[in-house]
Amino acid sequence: MNNPTRVAIITGASQGIGAALVAGYRKADYAVVANSRSIGASDDPMVLTVAGDIGEPGVGRSIVEAALERFGRVDTVVNNAGIFIAKPFTEYTDADYDAITGVNLRGFFEVSRAAVAAMPQGGHLVNISTSLVDQANSAAPSVLASLTKGGLNAATRSLAVEYATRGIRVNAVALGIIRTPMHGDHEYDSLAQLNPQKRIGELDDVVDAVLYLENAGFVTGEILHVDGGQSAGH
């Protein structure tokens, strides 16, 4: 299928940041393949929804195969799906470990591996990370987030170097506190104090950052912090 329309795969796409990214990429005239565990069908013929848990073996590959079958190409993958559980280290369970590493690492690995193999024309990977990797906070103990998202930051740089001459760019967006269904409204006043700007990030802040990277052809291997200065210090 010879399709000139660029195609983006977005994981964790049913709500919050993922849903905003779907809208942002559609506004940029991309076809979108949207994945989450229980995502419903879309009325937009240029949005293909693929339900499935990317923490499960084989699901990542099936998402890429669905994109190729419907649209004939893959240009971008935004690895947005993630699990965040804040607990003291010794309170994490084996089930927590399996769930977090499954989505945050296996999900990234399987989707990205299959997508890169389908990008002979070049392409772009964007990994959604967290500023807690760089600026740990005792008020939010989250070693499994740092373990997995820190790994994604390292993989971002490694893949950027490995695939630079093939025209595939790889970047990450490290987020601070963003207004999403993950947090209750009563939490935002205190959460805003975690960054120098003293405000909560909005969904548009994330979409703007990802689309900046999408259009920044000379930027690769970058960990772009979208956190109100949280990673810079206090």
TrEMBL record:
GO terms of biological process kind: fatty acid elongation
Highest taxon above the source species: Bacteria
InterPro entries: NAD(P)-bd_dom_sf, SDR_fam
GO molecular function, one term: oxidoreductase activity, acting on the CH-OH group of donors, NAD or NADP as acceptor
CDD domains the UniProt entry points to: SDR_c
Annotated family: Belongs to the short-chain dehydrogenases/reductases (SDR) family.
Protein name: 3-oxoacyl-ACP reductase
